[in-house]
Design a protein that fits this description.
0% of the residues lie in helices and 51% in strands. The protein is mainly beta.
């Protein structure tokens, strides 16, 4: 199983980025998907999640700015990030879990830097 995250980069405050995660090696239709981030010197935390039934959840800090989605036919997941702020700067990880609270598989991370 492999998760490949991409789409990070340098963006100015107020800008947008779209992160993608492509999964391979299993059928992820029944997995819940999460996007996490870790800023320098801080612990990794959840940004957003989407269940197999497409129910979504967001951290308070990103509500109204970020949108998570999944395309099960392509085993691809996205995190659309708008109105980016410097405090959104972090390495972003995608992850998948089948049962329970623990995520089973993790992508390698993609760096998002929000700076003028």
């Amino acid at each position: 199983v492999q998760l490949q995250a991409s789409g990070g980069g340098l963006v100015q405050p107020g800008g947008s980025l779209r992160l993608s995660c492509v999964a391979s090696g299993s059928d992820f239709d029944y997995y819940a998907i999460g996007w996490f981030r870790q800023a320098p010197g801080k612990e990794r935390g959840m940004v957003s999640c989407i269940s197999s039934s497409h129910s979504t959840g967001y951290a308070d800090s990103v509500k109204g700015r970020f949108t998570i989605s999944r395309d099960d036919a392509k085993n691809t997941w996205h995190l659309e990030m708008n109105a980016l702020k410097p405090e959104d700067t972090a390495v972003y990880y995608c992850a998948a879990r089948l049962r329970g609270p623990k995520y089973d598989y993790w992508g390698q991370g993609t760096l998002v830097t929000v700076s003028s």
